[in-house]
Amino acid sequence: MAKINPGLVGITGKVGDSIITRRGRYGSHIRKVVRPGTKKDEQALKEQYTRTASLNRLAAEVNAVMKELADDLKSSRFYVQLLSRFKKETSNNRLLLLRKLKGMDAHPTYPMAGYGLPDIRLITNRNELCVNLEILTHPICRVRGVNCYCFEVSLVTWDRTDNPPDCKRQYSDWVGITDDKPEFEFPFEKPDRAVHWILCIRLRFGVNNCPDKTFPAQAMQIVDTGSFDKREQAWLEELAVKPEMMEPEKRRERVVVERVKAKVKVVDK
Predict the structure, then answer these.
(1) How many other β-carbons are positioned within 10 Å of the β-carbon of residue 118?
(2) pTM for this structure?
(3) DSSP string for residues in 132-187
(4) Directed axis angle between helix 43-70 and helix 78-87, to 10°?
(5) How far apart are CA 4 and CA 23, in angstroms?
(6) 28 vs 90, higher pLDDT
(7) Confidence (pLDDT) at 209
């Protein structure tokens, strides 16, 4: 509440959205009232700090894995774009955050779609994830001299703890660009206690079964994400069809509506 004091400035205290001060380090001055949610001890700001730390930790883990898998192909802005995708997800659920990475290229200048992806089929069970690649058409590369290509398939997995992710990688044989169109099967054994995963595919062109290390001769993409937990995976598939669905552990409460009749007034005669 404001107070009336003698002097040129006769009022001190809170007036509307302002606070008038006559003493202190800065002398007489007027400042704005602190907005709700901006104090360090307020719950809203604490939750924001916690979310930021959680997103940064997961983004750092994915960025470190992609640096190892993609080498120099990983864009210098990959981490920034990674965080941007995470921030579009309102939930802190790691499975939902990883889902935002589906279709993300290691370098946007060299997208996998520009070369042509094979037909990808995934079979998941409790102990294994099997990746089937069927080459329907040979991928296209405009680098002169290349005459073959191969695929690198990587599975990155997390358990339910804060431990860093595990990564497994497999390579296909070299395929000549004039050879028959093959089909490859990559079986990945599930690591102990692994739950969530992302699948990365890298395409590399080469000359006489030796990789061409120039950027236009390669591409890499996070092609899919998921969970080894059947319940979570089923919910994730339903969520792709019905985005408004809530998390599986949360249920809508049944609302009971009753209509109340008006009381009958008794009129005294």
Answers:
(1) 21
(2) 0.72
(3) EEE-SS-----STT--EEEEEEEEEEE-SSSPPPEEEEEEPPPEETTS---EEEEE
(4) 140
(5) 14
(6) 90
(7) 95
Q: Measured in whole angstroms, how far is the alpha carbon of residue 207 from the centre of its chain? A: 36
Question: At a CB cut-off of 8 Å and minimum separation 6, what does 244 contact?
Answer: none
Residue keyed to tokens 């049944």: 254
Structural Rg of the chain based on CA atoms: 29
Chain-wide mean pLDDT for the chain? 84
For residue 251, what pLDDT band results from cuts at 50, 70 and 90? Answer: very low
**Per-residue pLDDT tens for 84-93?**
999 999 888 9
The answer to whether the CB of 247 falls within 8 A of the CB of 232 is no
Angle made by CA atoms 87, 237, 225, in degrees to the nearest 5: 55
Give the Cα separation of 49 and 43 in Å (integer): 10
Q: Which residues of 57-80 are buried (b: 16+ CB within 10 A; e: fewer)?
A: ebbebbeebbeebbeebbbeebbe
